[in-house]
Design brief:
The complex is a heterodimer of chains A (122) and B (115). The two termini of chain A are 21 Å apart. With 122 residues, chain A is α+β, with helices and mostly antiparallel strands. Chain A is built from three helices and four strands. The radius of gyration of chain A is 15 Å and the shape is flat. By secondary structure, chain B is of the alpha/beta class. Helices cover 41% and strands 32% of the residues of chain B. Chain B contains four helices and five strands. In chain B, β3, α2 and β4 form a beta-alpha-beta unit. At the A-B interface, α1 and α2 of A face β3, α2 and α3 of B.
């Protein structure tokens, strides 16, 4: 999904870029052009963030991630879709996907970052 | 940032120079349409130059695969040249390096169509 490498700094930007992809797939019921994207870090404002997360919510019908075909399976390599989750899981330390309340889907990606990388984040 | 394309010919190979981002939506569609147009003109040897592509998402990767598959059905070949390290990482993670022939320079890439 993303153009980033495994370095922490690049991964931060990668997760940020992922919000663009997810917002393109998310389907809010109430507005075709708006999607909730929440970005958080787990530290005080005076300290570099230790964890970085992106949460995207929509109000669409949702999907079952367990039913997404394995894009690495030989028979799926030439399919035009189905790689997004693989790439999210490759670049994030944690990915959670669950049904929202009262409906829709919520996707959260978390990247644990070093202080050094956090200080270089722009 | 959108995607711009330009086409040139070299030794019987259609070289598509891509610039910008290959992402969900208009950019991916532009890539699709460019390859389709070349195929509709009977071009059988298509080389995608990715040297100036700064970003690609999973949809962009999907469109590259789709273009490859469409070309194959028409007995045409799509290859890649000037793939940056970040893009190589993506091709590695998705195992698409087993699908595409990838080259580091244009001369080598064009020659490969002659084999």
């Amino acid at each position: 999904m993303f153009s980033g490498s495994r370095s922490s700094t690049a991964s931060l930007k990668t997760l940020s870029d992922s919000s663009a992809w997810l917002s393109g797939h998310a389907r809010p019921m109430w507005s075709p052009t708006e999607t909730d994207i929440v970005v958080r870090n787990w530290s005080s404002c005076r300290l570099p963030p230790s964890r970085f997360s992106i949460t995207i919510k929509d109000e669409g019908d949702g999907f079952n991630p367990d039913e997404v075909p394995d894009p690495l399976d030989g028979q799926n390599l030439l399919k035009s879709s189905g790689r997004g989750l693989l790439l999210m899981r490759s670049f994030a330390d944690e990915v959670s996907i669950h049904r929202g309340d009262p409906g829709g889907t919520e996707v959260m990606m978390i990247r644990i970052i070093s202080s050094r990388a956090a200080r270089s984040w722009k | 940032m959108s995607l711009s394309t330009s086409i040139r010919e070299k030794d019987g190979v259609t070289i598509v120079d891509l610039s910008g981002q290959i992402t969900l939506g208009e950019a991916s569609e532009k890539l699709r349409d460019t390859v389709r147009e070349s195929l509709s003109k009977g071009q059988k040897k298509i080389l995608l130059n990715l040297g100036d592509v700064g970003y690609i998402d999973s949809s962009g990767l999907g469109q590259l695969v789709s273009s490859y598959a469409t070309a194959s059905k028409q007995e045409a070949t799509v290859k890649l040249v000037n793939v940056g390290q970040k893009f190589k990482d993506l091709l590695q993670i998705t195992k698409l390096y087993t699908v595409f022939d990838i080259f580091g320079n244009e001369t080598e890439a064009v020659l490969s169509f002659s084999g």
